[in-house]
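Hi all, long-time lurker, first post. I run a small reading group and we've been trying to get comfortable going from sequence to structure in the token notation. Rather than ask abstract questions, I figured I'd post a concrete chain and ask someone more experienced to write out its structure so we can walk through it together at our next meeting. Sequence below, copied exactly:
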Amino acid sequence: MFIDYVSLLLVNMVAGYFLLAAFVYLGLDDPDRRRWAPGFLMVGLVATVFGGLITLSWPLPGPYNAAFGEMSVLFGVIFLGAGLAMAIGWSLATVAGYAFFAGSAAIVIGARIISLKLTLKPALSGTGFIVSGFAGVMAAPTLALMKNNRPLRAIACLILIAAGLIWAVTVYPEYWMHLRMFGKWTPLLMRSAGH
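-- Answer (accepted) --
Happy to help. Here is the structure in token form:
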């Protein structure tokens, strides 16, 4: 049995996508974006730290480290950048530009998860990556073209909410299963001490 942070990363993504949907609908024209910064920074910190741990230590079987670890780092850096930009009053344009490339990678990973039938539910996981990636690819157009267009912003929000819901449907049953699976698990340090 291996221990990983994937469920933590997925819950964090759920929170991030719903926060981003709220920001796109309510905050794009907010004259004081600083109030949005703490939420973005929290999501970014969790994703970057724990995605980074997976990326550096490779605790997952094979390709899952790149799919979940590296994509989490990119997701986290986007949220950290957005949170910092909001806190300081910088433009979000370069963050949206970065999101295009991270989103493109997520689309490739999602398609490959489906084609290789990775994960227990490859269609769901792959679609989650693809929809999430599409949200990243659409960040710059959303920022540039939809600022004053509420109907188009609502469509962008629906895409973000769809990504959040896909990851929610993926992760919450995992928590249910993990609590049963790890019920009798003993940490290595306690095993060696005879507990």
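A couple of things your group might point at:
Helices lie at 6-27, 37-57, 64-88, 93-116, 122-137, 139-145, 150-181, 188-192.
The chain has one domain: 6-192.
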